[in-house]
Design a protein that fits this description.
The structure is a single chain. 64% of the residues lie in helices and 16% in strands. The protein is an alpha+beta fold. The protein has one domain. A two-stranded antiparallel ribbon has the order 1-2. The longest helix has 33 residues, at 52-84. Belongs to the ZapA family. Type 2 subfamily.
Amino acid sequence: MSDGKKTKTTVNIYGQHFTIIGEESKAHMRHVAGVVDDKMREINEKNPYLDINKLAVLTAVNVVHDYMKLQEKYEILERQLKEKE
């Protein structure tokens, strides 16, 4: 959870080091980076001939797709809860 204080950490995503600054904990930022790294490797396994730029874009598209599906499910659950009130 964010407390307003900036945190800086270095992460490794797909063999590249990135410095990330945010309001979340270092553990959270490392976890996020790990999820991105895992997704990139998953996509690369299915199509090893993608260059790094295409791999990064496809990773972003996949992650946003997953996020949007979860958001839709959340909104449905919220509506169901309101209907029960």
